[in-house]
Amino acid sequence: MTTEPFAESPWQSAWASVPGRSHVMNNRPCEDAIAIWRSPAVLTVAICDGAGSASHGKAGAEIVSQELSKYLGQNFHNIIEGRVGLERIIQAGLTKIKELSGTSTGMSDYACTLVAIAVSKDLGIAVHIGDGLIAFVKAGQPYNAPRT
Predict the structure, then answer these.
(1) In terms of Cα–Cα distance, which of 15, 17, 14, 48 is closest to 30?
(2) What is the per-residue pLDDT for 140?
(3) Residue 114 Cα to chain centre, angstroms
């Protein structure tokens, strides 16, 4: 899923998803989802992988990636300036899952991992829940940004 709110954006992106070895061996579908949100000033990318133990892991991955990518993009400066905290970021995805899960299934049925970034010029946000990795290269070298 790619969400592009503005026709013109300086950001370019590409992505691919390949089923893992256990998916192939067990004839299970890939449960990866990605959402990209762009504006002239901000690029956000949220990547999720549905938990294999969750009955609706793929749906959870799609919902969380879409909702979080949009939320990070629309609230980028409020997050950077500390006016929006981590709990509101996570709540953006949980609210949508709660709407869809109703009473027939539980929240854990939509479990997924998450790695997400939001960048604008020299500012950035990284969100990481579960397994996965966010890597950043600056001037051709791996860069360890300070945690705040």
Answers:
(1) 17
(2) 80
(3) 5
Can you tell me which residue has the tokens 């397994």? 131
* Cα–Cα distance, 122 to 136 (Å, whole number): 12
Nearest Cα to Cα of residue 77 among 46, 123, 45, 38: 123
Q: CA-to-CA distance for 91 and 9, rounded, in angstroms?
A: 28
| Euclidean distance between the first and the last CA atom of the chain, given in angstroms as a whole number | 30
Q: 136 lies in which domain range? A: 2-142
**28-47 pLDDT tens trace:** 888 999 999 998 889 999 99
Please count the structural domains in the chain: 1
Helical segments of the chain, H only: 21-25, 57-74, 76-80, 86-101
Q: Does residue 138 form part of some domain?
A: yes
Higher pLDDT, 19 or 117: 117
